[in-house]
Amino acid sequence: MQIAKKSQVPIQQQMYINGLMHQVWIDFFERLANLNNEADTISVFELAQLSGELPSVATSGQLTFDVAQLKEAHDLFAKNTLNALQVIQEDISTLASAVNNLRQQVSSFENRISNLEAGTTAINSQLTSLESRIAVLEAKP
């Protein structure tokens, strides 16, 4: 049986979508039915029987293809998720280091402020002492 080039099997197109045969496949089978069977190797009845088996074969083949695509998508998603988690973990480590650095700086500033307060208290004490001496000196005739 010779099949014209325009009657090639449309393998790039899914045969069934949502349980309905795609129009490309319907057109293919219509062209196939109109061809002359020159060698008488297959009857129309046999062709009808074989075409009756197509839905289950096509569906199982499509399911296998879909499962393979889903597995590839899952593997890619898992890989991308792990990469993202590693980047997030690195960012968390960097932030934790920055927080520790800021804590050390705050502690250092608190110590400096405490030292400044102690120095201010000492200066105020000395000023009070000087003021009282000046008052004693000014009170003498």
Mean pLDDT: 79
If helices are DSSP runs of H or I spanning 4 or more residues, what is the number of helices? 2
Q: Strand-residue fraction?
A: under 5%
Assign an overall shape: rod-shaped
Task: Determine the fraction of residues in helical runs and give it as a percent range.
Answer: over 70%
Produce the secondary structure layout.
Blueprint: E1 16-17, E2 20-21, H1 23-34, H2 44-139
Antiparallel strand pairs: 1-2
Describe what you observe in this structure:
The structure is a single chain. The chain is an all-alpha fold and 141 residues long. The chain contains two helices and two strands. A two-stranded antiparallel sheet has the order 1-2. The protein is rod-shaped and about 145 Å long.
Short description:
The chain contains two helices and two strands. By secondary structure, it is an all-alpha fold.
